[in-house]
Amino acid sequence: MTLVLRTTDRTAEPTPVLPVLPAGTDPLLQLQYETQPATGPGATRCLSHPHELAFGGIPATCSACRARRDWLLINHGRHVWIRCRCSNQWLEPEISRAHFDTLIDSPDVTTYPGVEQCLVALGFDGAFAGIYLE
Description:
- Helix content is about 20%, strand content about 20%.
- It is of the alpha+beta class.
- A four-stranded antiparallel sheet has the order 1-4-5-6, with helices on both faces.
């Protein structure tokens, strides 16, 4: 599965290649490897952010549905995207990876097999468009 994040600018970074264990590896080691959460610079992390976001005193607003809160922040590499419940998504240069790391304050982390599964599980696939969930 190739990760493609929709943004308003059409630049794309190459998708990092994950290491593959050699054939004949112990099945328990393979399972342990596959169930580890993604880490490192190539990992994609998602964070639900129910509150408003403001950049330079200007609140973030979805250009598609005009929502002003209840966001999903997606971090991949040094970039952070904001995604709305209506499935509109944009690159936000005002949020750095360091700022994203400071927003993660919960010890409860759920790992999903991919970004699409995360979007569906958290309700950011467009199914809850126009609804604020709390």
